[in-house]
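Lab notebook, bench 4. The sequencing result for the construct came back, and we need a structural model before the next group meeting so we can plan mutations. Quick request posted to the team channel:

Model the 3D structure of this chain.
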Amino acid sequence: MDIAKTDTFEVRLVWAKCPSWADTSQYLGVDYYINGVSLLDMIREIEKPYFDEEGNPELTGDYGLNSVKVMRKQFARALKDDEVIDLYCCAECGFSDCWSVYCRFEEDGDFIVMKNFEHNFRDLTYPFEFRFTKQNFWAEIEKLTAATQ
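Done. Here's the predicted structure in C-alpha cell form:
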C-alpha cells in the first residue's frame, strides 16, 4: 500500500435546512472533507472563474446538503455498476437532480477511489481524484448508518 498517495475521507453530519421549504424544520445533512479540507470549498475554487465569466457568480458552490438517509442509500450502491453519486443537492429546492456535483467511486485493491467529478447542468469537470483506504472509507460511511438507526 502506497501511504504517500492515500487521502483521508471524512463525513461530517450537520444540521441543515433548505431555504425554500415552507417549514423551518432541519434535517441531518452530509458534508465531505478530504484531507481536512472541505470538498465544497475545493469545488468553489474550480467553479468561481467559470461562473464569474458566465455572469452568475452567485452560483459558485450554491449547493445544499443531501440528507443522511439519501446518502446512506446512495453509498450502499456506490461501488455497483459504475453508479454515479450525487454529493449535493439544489440549495433552493433540495433535489439533487436539479443542481448537483456528481462523482464515481470504484475499488482499486485496498483502496476506494473517488473520481470523475462533474456538474449535472453545466459543462464543468473537476480535476479531482482521491484514494482512500477501504478501512477509512467504510468507517466514515458507517456514520450514516449509525445516524439513521
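The mean pLDDT is 90.
Will bring this to the meeting.
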